[in-house]
Amino acid sequence: MPTLIPAPKKRPPSPFKQVTAFHTDTSALERFIKQVTGRSYPICACELWGDDESHEFTVDGEVHEYDEEKVHALMHARIPKEHSLRSILNALCRDGHIERGLYVVQAI
After folding, report:
1. CA–CA separation, 81 vs 52, rounded Å?
2. How much is the pTM?
3. Is residue 1 over pLDDT 70?
């Protein structure tokens, strides 16, 4: 079978780089959040995700004031504002529950 794009004699350097990422699904992450915090966080509903979506988060453990409000809402039995998962992941990292890095979460 012929190739779609023949390789040139001298290939340009690829713009891609390999990275290591942590992978999980929403069900496992929801269980983990509940185990650590004692609170439920329905990820797909709160993040407005559809089935089979995949989302990436760069987690560095830095929780800014606005993010802290979202985490505070979760810890005080209120459903946080929409799109709070990044804040929750950073708080989990800050508090030593997960490592810094790239996280990929698959909606199921």
Report:
1. 22
2. 0.79
3. no
